Amino acid sequence: MNQYKVNQYTYDLQDLNHNNLPSALDEFMNGLNKSISVYIYQKFDVETAFLCVAPRKYKIYGEDEQKKMISNKPLVYAKERSNCLCRNCCPGDFQPFKMNVYEKLHIKDEIKNEFKVDQNSNCFIQLVRQFRCTICCFFRPFMNVSIRTQNGSFQFIGKIKDPIKLCPPREWFNTGVDVHDSNDNLVYIIEVSEFKCGTFCSSCCCSACQEVRFHILSPHDRNIVGYIEKKATDCVKNALTGMSNFKIIFPEGIIYEQKVLLLAATFFIQSQMFIESPGEQSEDVDDILEILG
């Protein structure tokens, strides 16, 4: 596959479509700038429930100051690109992947409800998370965040980090992430607001436990400036696939790049906290099938 590098980060040439890029990018930027919050809906995959873990796909909607959807159609779509072996064999906090945010997707198979990237679609955001063999305090995972510019290239704008935690079992303390800009300055701290079963068990069936709120904190005074909320999904779907829907309530007056960083932080949080290891997921499937008879 043809690739190129910018600022030591590698991108695929197939992400560099230029189909009406300036107008399409302006439309997306205006939509995101108007949004005081966004909803992230994950597509349910039957394949993930019963066969193997499929790449995650999302629709992202914007909400304006009147709490109305900016458009009936999604602002953008997000699709994971990852290795099948890593998805099905590595724990969530080890898995490497790219998450591309596209202008549009199109239906590949209406009967199976399958979506794929439209070949004429522009990629606006690219998130790259490399493999990290995390052991307690060592080799903490991170994600690089890049945005598309008007000239068609990608610009690195920051990274999301899972900060060093205390060294006893890390699962006890895996409760948030740090958001850094392109100069590695700490922009936001994101921490879970309270501990629920859903904080530690992604396949928890109880709706109340599935809902988890994260505080977006200012690094200077630790004041709460915004929220990320994990929303409850269908009980059976959540138990079978661990799918997650989110709402991001942005801090007031933030710029486009910071909104993109918080969007990336949400995908990073899901991969860190709400993706079970393959063994745990298969046990959940067995339990659900036994309940269903």
Automatic annotation (TrEMBL):
Write down the superkingdom of origin: Eukaryota
Among the GO molecular function terms of this UniProt record, one is: phospholipid scramblase activity
Q: Which GO terms describe its cellular component?
A: plasma membrane
Q: Which InterPro entries match?
A: Scramblase
Q: Into which family does the record put it?
A: Belongs to the phospholipid scramblase family.
Task: Please identify the protein, giving its name as recorded.
Answer: Phospholipid scramblase
Origin species: Tetrahymena thermophila (strain SB210)
